[in-house]
Design a protein that fits this description.
Distance between the termini: 68 Å
Helix content: 55-70%
Number of domains: 2
Strand order of the largest sheet: 1-2
Length: 201
């Protein structure tokens, strides 16, 4: 059966560098299926770093995550001097990496957008009506995380004898007070009800 999907540089590069799962990863991050959305520019950088890493791996050159980040920035950042870029290119080429090919396989954020929308038929969810709900949920998740970190810290300090051994309860409650009427709300409650319902000034 003939594949009727349009040609896509991103799809081609995924196949050539054996980046299995990358297409789904890009889609999930762009649509925000499991949290906050990732911008197309950040996705393009993430994709290009994966391409660079795959090329180095194929040349049997191990590289740490921090080195990869620095290397990618050297090859792509406009603020990097030409001499530094050339030196890094030669270092890579000495390990067997075809730098010219790798750089030609880097993609733009427009290419990522085309791949997601035309090749994978991905669509952004309509979130125009539930912004307040999403922000309330995000804040509540952050509060929950803060409680977990604080509880863990308290337990560790007790175990080390740095604070007295008592039964402690951690409470994180973000409150918002209306400056017009003085009403006090939890942040989530205020977001969900559309603000304070007082008459205002």
């Amino acid at each position: 059966m003939t594949d009727s999907r349009p040609n896509s540089k991103v799809a081609r590069v995924i196949e050539e560098y054996d980046l299995s799962g990358m297409g789904e990863q890009l889609e999930v991050a762009w649509t925000g299926e499991y949290g906050e959305r990732t911008s197309l520019r950040d996705l393009a950088d993430e994709f290009n770093r994966a391409v660079l890493e795959a090329a180095i791996r194929d040349a049997d050159g191990p590289i740490a995550e921090t080195d990869l980040e620095s290397l990618y920035r050297t090859l792509t950042d406009d603020d990097v001097s030409g001499a530094d870029r050339m030196r890094k290119r030669r270092e890579l080429e000495s390990t067997g990496v075809d730098v010219e090919r790798v750089e030609s396989d880097f993609v733009t954020h427009q290419a990522v957008h085309t791949y997601l929308t035309e090749y994978r038929d991905a669509e952004l969810p309509d979130r125009s009506e539930d912004v307040a709900e999403r922000k309330a949920e995000l804040l509540e998740r952050l509060q929950g995380r803060t409680v977990a970190v604080a509880n863990s810290t308290v337990d560790r300090l007790v175990e080390n004898g740095d604070i007295t051994d008592r039964s402690y309860d951690v409470v994180v409650d973000v409150r918002v007070v209306c400056g017009d009427c003085g009403s006090d709300y939890s942040a989530g409650e205020l977001f969900r009800q559309g603000g304070c319902d007082c008459a205002g000034p």
